[in-house]
Amino acid sequence: MQNLLKNYKTTSAGLLMALGAIVHLVFAIKAHTADENTWTITIGAVLGGIGLIFAGDASASTTASTTNAQAIDQINQQGPDKSAPPVTPKQP
Predict the structure, then answer these.
(1) Average pLDDT of span 2-28
(2) Tens-place pLDDT, residues 36-49
(3) Domain residue limits, the chain
(4) Considering just the CA atoms, what is the radius of gyration of the chain in Å?
(5) What are the Cα distances from residue 88, in Å, to 22, 67, 75, 77, 92?
(6) φ/ψ (deg, to 5) at 49
């Protein structure tokens, strides 16, 4: 549950994706136009939405960003390279 709150942007995208697909299916059923394609698209979108809801991308990107910042700091401590401009870490 904590991961869902930490990744609120990804979670909200997943919810909107799944709910949008379900709403589309409901309207297709009411209009008697739901066919195999409608069901396939709905199932794919709902599964994709579930994947986004439970994605753990915030912790991975934070770890990668910290590792990259440390590597850049080590490079900068070695002294300036006369042939290239200094590399600075991206500000969060």
Answers:
(1) 87
(2) 999 999 999 999 99
(3) 2-56
(4) 22
(5) 46, 14, 10, 11, 12
(6) -65, -40
Three state DSSP letters for 38-57: HHHHHHHHHHHHHHHHCCCH
Three-state DSSP class for residue 83: coil
**b/e burial code for range 5-42 (CB count within 10 A of at least 16 → b):** eebeebbebbeebbeebeeebeebeeeeebeeebeeeb
> Which one-letter amino acid corresponds to residue 35?
D
Give the integer Cα–Cα distance in Å for 68 and 16.
33
Cα 37 from Cα 43, distance rounded (Å): 10
Distance CA 80, CA 92 (A): 24
